Amino acid sequence: MPTLESTTSEVLDLAAAHFRVPREQLRPDDDFFKKLGISSLEALDLLTHLEHHFHIELPDYELQGVSDFRTLAERIQSRL
Amino acid sequence: MLDLRKFNSLGEALRAALDRWPREVCLIEADREREKARLTYREFKEAALPLARALENAGFQSGTRAAIIMTNQSKWLISAYAIFFCGGVLVPLDYKLTPAEQLKLLAHSKAEFLVIEYHLWRVMAQAEEFKTLAAPTVLVTEAPAGADLAGAKRWEEFCSAGEPVFAPRNRTDPACIVYSSGTGGRPKGCVLTHENYLEQCVALTALYPFWPGVRYLSILPTNHAIDFMVGFIGPFTCGAAVVHLRTLRPEYIREAFTRYKITYMTLVPMVLKSLERGLRQRFEALPPGRRKMLNALISVNRALTRKSPKPKISRMLLRQVHEAFGGELRALFVGGAFTEPATLQFFYDLGILVGNGYGSTEAGTVITMNDFKPFRPHTVGKPLPGMQVKIVNADSEGIGEVVAKSKTVMSHYLDDPQMTAETIVDGWLLTGDLGRIGPGGHLQLFGRKKNMIVTEEGKNIYPEDVENAFDGLPVKEYCVFAANYLWPARTMVGEQLVMVIHLEPGQIVSPDLIVNIGERNRRLLNYKRVSGYLVWERDFPLTASLKIKRGELAEEIRGTLGRDRVLPL
Q1: For every residue of B25-78, which 3-state class applies, written as one string?
Q2: Does residue B456 fall inside a structural domain?
Q3: Domain span at residue B512?
Q4: A contacts of B96 (beta carbons < 8 Å)
Q5: For B221-249, what is the HEC assignment?
Q6: Which has fewest Cβ within 10 Å: B154, B172, B443, B469?
Q7: Same-domain status, B278 and B259
Q8: What is the pTM (predicted TM-score) of this model?
Q9: How many structural domains does chain B have?
């Protein structure tokens, strides 16, 4: 079972690769809308990529009210 | 379709529809590739009436207010019908609001019943403001077995045997209270009557008819005035079917078009642009030869459809593009915010009609709609049948405030006669939008007169609602404005919120202050955030009750500082 720390790190790796942002610029507490300059629709796209990577299903509502990588990783962790 | 002029209420019209087309499918609910429900009109009725009976047994009466906070799904519409059947007033709330915002609007609406999805209820029950919830009966859908429901009842078990008694309503009775804003500041609960909805439905279906066999893909939230009308009342009163998709992910939207042979769909500009991007990427990925062929076919289609759409020819010429949309698509509707003409033109050139509309909750949804005679991407079309539109206080170029009058215009703002009187003057709804009526009666929009922004997702954001997040900010005073209100720009794009800060004597904009503002900003939903700030060095003009005179302050700022003085947050 991966730790929350490793899950968060994987989320950051995937977000950096998907939106072509240097990985070192992303921190767990960053607001991903602002940092990646993405809309809510693009955030759903990120959710799809995370689902494929972690082999889980995340309903759209899991993203509701979430805007930082750490909380997103927590939502993923709870389903691993 | 039903002759809606013969009906007095939404409940009465829907009841007639359920009896008229018992074998037609009215509702399909899909979650990704899984179909979760498929109901005929008869099955819909059989699901709703036991709920209506249970509501009656629980003391539900004519005029009782009941709120729904749910994502798009079959239980939303079943609950709404049961509420109308019992003569209730529906309060559809945005499931994307924070629990604190939802609780505030629940309190303002005085809803006595609440229907809510379990995952939303779970979050609401943990909110600090949960103790303010006054609705005595809460029905929770899809709660897992053994879940703590914090005093709520299970929707699935809330049903009673026996025939419920239908509660007739008058046309002028309220049908819904729809909040167009006011989660932070002054709540704007638009009271819409049964007549408002019935008349709107007649007008819209005259332009874009529904019939048994039509499939409407519903992805906008049903609490949104547009989806409530074209994703529920419109199709149901015509024997058509609604397809609910419980995800907004582009790949599943694309799949739904082909799987369900969709006829119509409404979307906001942001989703339309996402579809455009997806198509452009696919076109670019084609081998050079096929790309060249595609471009040639698009040019031919453009030439042939210059004066009016020719759907059959377009489908033949650009067969693969149309097949990607299921092959049965008649039109997409876009509204809720400004759509760039280039995006509309892109789809029109492919032979995919995008009905660009303009309206507001206060107007009873749609005011104007494109009619494609011919296609005019720079306008939002002509007034709907029965809708009068004019421009008041026009300048030398004919641009002024758009005002509208119709049987669809809301009755009033709930418990706010002052705001109602400021918004509806001599029967005319003052929209606060700036426009000009061009040749042929087509309306063109140029910006806003009011202090607000509309996001690409169709969300109306009022600065007063956002300011609460900054309560206690360590500065002398602050105020949030729409940038285009401070510096009027004849555009509907690039709208953003700006915070005007007046510092204490000797205070500077320290890194701590910026961090403080940033932290508070992040607590707001992402589309409500302030984009920049401006330092103002004079005291804000105040009323006798110490409220900021926003108009006066805006005028002072406009006369002194330019938009280039805004610093990003």
Answers
A1: EEEEEEECCEEEEEEEHHHHHHHHHHHHHHHHHCCCCCCCEEEEECCCCHHHHH
A2: no
A3: 462-568
A4: 64
A5: CCCCHHHHHHHHHHHHCCCCEEEEECCCC
A6: B172
A7: no
A8: 0.87
A9: 3
> Per residue in A14-73, pLDDT tens?
999 999 899 999 999 998 888 888 888 888 888 989 999 999 988 888 887 788 999 999
Q: Do both B261 and B282 map to the same domain? A: no
Least CA distance to A65: which residue of chain B? Answer: B525
Contact yes or no for A59 and B119 at CB 8 A: yes
Q: Examine residue B457 and state whether it is found in any structural domain, yes or no.
A: no
Which residue from A41, A48, A60 is facing B270, i.e. has the nearest CB? Answer: A41
In this predicted complex, what is the ipTM? Answer: 0.83
Same domain, B244 and B308: no
Nearest-CA neighbor of B349 among B444, B271, B280, B290?
Answer: B280
Shared-domain flag, residues B400 and B479: no
Judgement on whether residues B368 and B287 belong to the same structural domain of the protein: yes
DSSP for residue B143:
P
**Mutate which: B141, B219, B249, vs A, most A CBs within 10 A:** B249
Mean pLDDT per 10-residue section of chain B, whose length is 569 residues = 95 98 97 93 98 97 97 96 98 92 94 96 92 91 93 96 96 96 77 98 94 95 92 97 90 92 92 90 94 96 94 95 94 87 95 93 93 89 95 91 96 96 95 90 87 78 84 91 87 84 92 92 85 92 81 91 90
